[in-house]
Write a structure and sequence with these properties.
- The protein is α/β, with parallel strands linked by helices.
- The protein has 15 helices and 20 strands.
- An eight-stranded parallel sheet has the order 11-10-9-3-2-1-13-12.
- Helix 11 runs parallel beside helix 14.
- The protein binds alpha-D-glucopyranose and calcium ion.
- The site of calcium ion has 6 residues, from loops.
Length: about 525
């Protein structure tokens, strides 16, 4: 196969508020990202995805967009964005923006108009419904951030729908005028040269036309949060969403391969594997990469991970390219979930599976979740449902760059506290350490860049037992074995005959022993890549 950049490449997610501040307001900005491009280039990633930078009241930290064609002053200006894009491209780094099509801020001029009167031409741009006969909300749909997903509007005597906060009103994508306006917003950025989008909550965009009640969730536990009281059967993943995803793909494809190659679309979709696969498209192609979040929640157990990987691979449509993710700005960090020793093994897994990996900023430092004192909580999710560990501030803390004041992130007070160990867990320090997780990430990324077997090679699980997860990657004459010990005790792996004389190419630990007569010993928490060359 001829590999495309988004198939061999590695994507790196930047939470812009937390990456690098340059104007001393304690919040990261576009100039800050530009300043750190050399770091990103040296790390060896191919593209950055930047969480929303548009003008926003920031009630949901930018996922409440008030203007799709601008830059929030806190992040800088459109000119800053153009500079960043040019500088990234000069280093061969593509830039993906976060497109948030499901909902707008309640301050977006469209919504302000829409709520002004029932007869307003933009009324039907959002989802307005009469009350139920008892005067309550039109149905039982629950916001992902808890409580009814319907907000009463006194002035016009109707409810509007919001899948998230009441300050995030859902657009009515059944209205062709909405589609046209939003497609124009995509073109606005593509015309400027962006390399694609991560599409926010793609599976939410269309709701059942007659708004039936969602069925109760028989497995609901209060600890899951309010949203899981019902199954989102009618409020998400409706068949009509696929036409929209295909339209978006056609727009991206219409930009061809000028510049650094194809424009790519990545869909944020939390669904079961079978449902997820639908978003690759059928007759009409849809998103290039429906985000595969399977590794985030899976039990960290070799046998079940092997089964999960096999199931995902088997479910892919013939032309569907796989992808893998360990964390993002909404979910606990891999360092917190799996611990420091296994975070290294997880890095090797992420960067040696078949498919496009997405890294979350700071994971290359082994950052863990940072405990946020109650008085400093900012995330609306935590504020609305405190104490359930659903809050996202702990995974959005500033990037620690060096040992100077505020870890080189800002000259002011950072908007969220730094990791407590920032004096040693920072880029400058860990770059010098031959066995830091940062050095491991660099070596894994370099190995992946020079060996196509690791990115686009065929994948086959190997027989393994207990805590060992092992697989083969093969491309042309190149054959590699990845063997991961997910446990805290040393383990043996019997290698297949063809690999009995292979040697370690890279280990997650210092030094690694070669296999003897096909018998590979893995130390506790060790992962190795073996080569036959
Ligand atoms: C997505 C984003 C999340 C946001 C939500 C609403 O899930 O990743 O951060 O709160 O959409 O836009
Ligand atoms: Ca700033």
């Amino acid at each position: 196969m001829t590999a495309l950049w988004w198939q061999t490449g590695v994507i790196y997610q930047i939470y812009p508020r937390s990456f690098q501040d340059t104007n001393g307001d304690g919040m990261g900005d576009l100039k800050g990202i530009e300043q750190r491009l050399d770091y990103l280039a040296s790390l060896g990633i191919d593209a950055i995805w930047i969480s929303p930078i548009y003008p926003s009241p920031m009630v949901d930290f930018g996922y409440d967009v008030a203007d799709y064609c601008g830059v929030d002053a806190r992040f800088g200006t459109l000119a800053d964005f153009d500079d960043l894009l040019a500088q990234a491209h000069a280093r061969g780094i593509r830039v993906l923006l976060d497109f948030v099509p499901n909902h707008t801020s309640d301050r977006h001029p469209w919504f302000v108009e829409s709520r002004s009167s029932r007869g307003d031409p933009k009324r039907d741009w959002y989802i307005w419904r009469d009350p139920a006969p008892d005067g309550g909300p039109p149905n039982n749909w629950i916001s992902d951030f808890s409580g009814s997903a319907w907000e009463w509007d006194e002035a016009t005597g109707q409810y509007y729908y919001h899948a998230f906060l009441k300050e995030q009103a859902d657009l009515n994508w059944r209205n062709p005028a909405v589609r046209a306006a939003m497609y124009d917003a995509m073109r606005f950025w593509l015309d400027r040269g962006v390399d694609g989008f991560r599409i926010d909550v793609l599976w939410h965009m269309v709701k059942a036309a007659d708004f039936p009640d969602n069925p109760p969730n028989p497995d609901h536990q209060p600890a899951m949060g309010d949203m899981h009281r019902v199954l989102q059967l009618h409020s998400t993943d409706q068949p009509e969403v696929h036409c929209i995803a295909a339209d978006m793909r056609a727009i991206a494809d219409s930009y061809g391969t000028k510049g650094l190659g194809e424009r790519v679309l990545i869909g944020e979709i939390y669904l079961t594997i079978d449902r997820l696969m639908q978003y690759y498209g059928g007759e009409r192609a849809e998103v290039h990469l429906p985000f595969n979040f399977q590794l985030i929640d899976a039990p960290w157990q070799a046998r079940s991970l092997a089964e999960l990987i096999a199931r995902y691979e088997a479910a892919l449509p013939p032309s569907g390219w796989p992808n893998w993710v360990l964390g993002n700005h909404d979910r606990p960090r891999v360092g917190a979930k799996r611990g420091q020793a296994q975070a290294r093994v997880a890095a090797m897994l992420l960067l040696t599976l078949r498919g496009t990996p997405t890294l979350y900023y700071g994971d290359e430092l082994g950052l863990s979740d940072v405990a946020i004192p109650a008085a400093q909580v900012q995330d609306p999710r935590e504020l609305r449902e405190p104490g359930l560990a659903l809050g996202r501030d702990p995974v959005r803390t500033p990037m620690p760059w060096d040992g100077s004041e505020n870890a080189g992130f800002t000259t002011a007070k950072p908007w969220l506290p730094l990791n407590k160990d920032w004096a040693t867990r920072n880029v400058a320090q860990m770059a010098e350490e031959p066995h830091s997780i940062l050095t491991l990430y660099r070596r894994l990324l370099a190995a992946r860049r020079t060996r196509l077997a690791l990115s686009i090679g065929d994948f086959a699980l190997l027989d393994a037992e207990g805590d060992v997860l092992a697989y083969e990657r093969r491309h042309g004459t190149e054959r590699l074995i990845v063997a991961l010990n997910l446990g805290g005790q040393s383990r043996r792996l019997q290698l297949p005959d063809w690999a009995s004389h292979c040697r370690p190419l890279l280990s997650t630990l210092a030094g690694a022993a070669p296999a003897r007569d096909g018998d590979l010993r893995l130390r506790a928490d060790e992962g190795v890549i073996l080569t036959t060359e």
